[in-house]
Structures are given as C-alpha cells and as structure tokens.
Amino acid sequence: MTLEETQARIAESSHWIHAVKSEMAKVLVGQDRLVDRLLISMLCNGHVLLEGVPGLAKTLAVKALSGCLHTTFSRFQFTPDLLPADLIGTMVYQPQSSSFAPKLGPIFNNLILADEINRAPAKVQSALLEAMQERQVTLGDTTYKLPQPFLVLATQNPIDQEGTYQLPEAQLDRFLLKVTVGYPTPEEELTILDRMATSAPTYNTQTVANPEQIAASRDLVNQIYIDPAIRKYIVTFINATRNPHDYDAPLKNLIRSGASPRGTINLALSARARAFMAGRAFVTPQDIKDMIPDVLRHRILVTYEAEAENINTDTIIERLMAKVPVP
Fold it and tell me: What's 89's DSSP letter?
C-alpha cells in the first residue's frame, strides 16, 4: 500500500476519533492531553496509568470514554483487603455434579477502570499482571482468554501514602503510558463551576464507536511509515537513558536504570497512533518528542541522590531531550 493510499484510508477510518472527542467534551472540561492519551492507548492496544491528585476528573474521563464505545465496562475500587478472586474469579464447588466449575470475575470486560491501583496488595497486582500482559486469566488448570479489546485504565494518587503500595517495576513497564493529570486553567475551572455545580450534574455520553472500528484503525496504525532517521532517533534516545553520561555528564549519578526495549517499541507505536489521530500516514520527529515523556516517565528509575535533590524523571527527560540531536 502506497503512502497516498494509507493517507486516504486514515481519512476514512478516523471519523470515530473526532466523534469520541466531541462526546467526551460534553462531560469533560479541558484535559485535551488526557483524552488524546486515552485514545492513543486504545489505538495501541496498551494500558495507561493516570496519576494526579483527587478531583481532577481521572475517573470521569475513563467512564466518559467507556460511554462512547460499544464495549463492556467494569470498575474496581482497589483496597488493601482486595483478593485476586475479587478480580479474576474463582473455582466454585457444584454439589449437583460433585465438581468445581469456574466463576469468571468482573475482569472479563473490555475496559477496566482500576481506581487507586496502588492500594492493592502484591497478590492482586500479580493476578492483574497476567491479565495485562498475556490478556488471559488462569483459574485452576484452565486458561481463559480475555475479550478484545481489553484495556486497563488505572488511576493512582501520588499524595496519600497510608495504605498504598509501590507498584513493582515489572508491572509499571506493562503500562504503555503514564500520564500526569494537572490542574485546569482558571478559565476551564470557571466552565467546570458553571456546568457541574448542581446537585445532579449529567455525565452521560452517547455510543459513537464499536470494536470493529477500533480494530480497523489499529491495522492502519501498524502501516504508518516511520523514516529510518526517526527510527534511529528513537533508539538513540532510549540508549541515552541507559548511558546518560554520554550526553549530560551530571545525569550519570541521577539515573539508576534506563528504559528497556519495551520502551523502544512503545515509543514507536504510540508515535504512529499520534500520527493517525493527526490524519497523517507518516511519523514526524515532533510525534516522537511529544510521546517521549508519557512513554518513558515510568521506565526510568532515579537514584536516591536524585530523590534527595528533588529531581524526578520528567526533569531528566527534559534534559536528555535538549541534548539528543533531533533528525
């Protein structure tokens, strides 16, 4: 397929993106970057971790997205006493047949909202990890495939530490994106006040897309062209997170571990999805630069020295972006 043919097919197949954005705008004020990242994760078949203080519409955004899609939806409020069986199901004894039969849990839905995922203990995280990575669940001796599409959209509170558990690095790496959700502007907050400050605000969205459209769009995303120079830029930047002293000597003592090859793959894939949403059949360097923070924010581990100096991964990424030459 030529670049022109891909461009024409993208124009035909991307209408649902604009329809979903319009529906979500009915209940969500601002947060355009958040909406874009949720749609990118949908196009990439990847999970997304949303981090921000309470009250910034993280949960509302996920529920609004689920209302726009002809898919099933399930919400978990993670707590320290949650059990794996509460998510994935369990084996139930049947007296009539004197045998055990599976009772599948609520994780067998298309969209999973994992609210405050860092409040769940290790056993729950382990059960969720298989579902996220393998898209399957094992009960007893049998493995059950999860429905498609299957996305975990998790929220995390960065402030309250009581009763929370740090997510394992292996599980963090399974998230395609980690998105930090910030405060609205004063103008956006005034709109929120006018729209939502009632005793019964409406949060309803109309269904405007189905799994078949999503699957067709994913096929097109995989065909979007990435120039060899841009591919080299991706690999060079990932290598810079592993060998930061080659680009910025002081960073040597601030990075404990760089991004894995999964970061390389996800950066290219998410850049393709961003190009698709922009109606392009090719990836630009700006697509890469725009996706770098969200793809690598949770894949770069900082040292104790960086934490002591109040330097986070966003600061490190900014410094590397200023040093690594762009094609």
Answer: E
Ranges for all domains in the chain classified under CATH 3.40.50.300: 14-218
CB 241 within 8 A of CB 262: no
Of 112, 55, 115, nearest to 79 (Cα)? Answer: 115
Tokens in use for 204?
């309803």
Paired tokens of 9: 């097919």
pLDDT in tens, 268-309: 999 999 999 998 889 999 999 999 999 999 888 888 888 888
Distance between CA atoms of 49 and 96, rounded to whole angstroms? 44
Query: What is 14-218's CATH number?
Result: 3.40.50.300
Token digits of residue 46 = 């990847």
Cα–Cα distance between 120 and 294 in angstroms, integer? 23
Best CATH choice for the domain 224-323 from the list 1.10.8.80, 3.40.630.30, 4.10.520.10, 2.30.130.10: 1.10.8.80
Model pTM score: 0.88
CB 3 within 8 A of CB 281: yes
